[in-house]
Amino acid sequence: MIGVDLHMHSNFSDGELSPVELIELAREKQLLTLALTDHDTIDGNVLAAQHAALHGIQFIQGVEISSFWHRPSIKKTHAVHIVALNMQNLEPMQQLLLKQKQLRAKRALLICEKLQQILKTDFLPEIRELVDGHDERITRSHIAKVLLKRNVVTRAQQAFDRFLKEGKAAYVPFLGVEMVDAIAIIHQSQGFAVLAHPTKYDLSATNIRYMIEQFAAAGGDAIELPPANTPLSTRQMLDRMVEQHQLKVSIGSDFHGAHMPWLSLGHVPKLKDGQQGIWEFFEL
Questions:
Q1: What is the pLDDT of residue 72?
Q2: One Pfam family name from the record (predicted)?
Q3: Per the CATH hierarchy, to which homologous superfamily does domain 4-67+78-90+195-281 belong?
């Protein structure tokens, strides 16, 4: 048992558990090292760090940054998430996250406006209840929960399929920081830049390889390994890219809560022989 999980979410973004509850679950799962990586916020990290210390769990400063990059095959931008880990100087990151939060709040309101036009109902008050009035914490998952509660859809995924995903009527793109700039700011914060879940972006194998190539060229430090149930050919491709670009690897469950039971806290993939875990290089 490796006891490391470097990707998880609390209710400071789109997770179900509070930072304290998350640490309690991590203790039950016998985790030794973890990072809280909420979307574009480190607001939950202080609570998580304090509670982790009480239980002898090594806490790593983390955040998942929403960024974008340019696909080579068609003229469009594509969302990509960069996880920042083990930041030692938070000031540069806090400046970026302030801008990201403002963009997140604006995007959430635009989505709600579109839904109101389509469905003739204002869902915003109920959505705000889920995030204690913090518009910058609203994600599409929160919106999907309310649509499910109001019987607009029969399951949360249907909300994405009908309204919220790219190409649907209520979709609003999130154009935050560019990937290369996110990596630079992570390094200014004396942290490590990790390409999160590289196989989850609905990209062809060719474009995944191109994305990793661009990530490495921009100074990215590590790739997050895919779940254990990933097709062998996909895992082998990523392993080759790690070796080719001399990248380190990271592991994380991307745990959100009971509403995503397929993502279990502490359930992380195994490293291939010769791969270096990014946590081995942390300054603690």
A1: 64
A2: PHP
A3: Metal-dependent hydrolases (3.20.20.140)
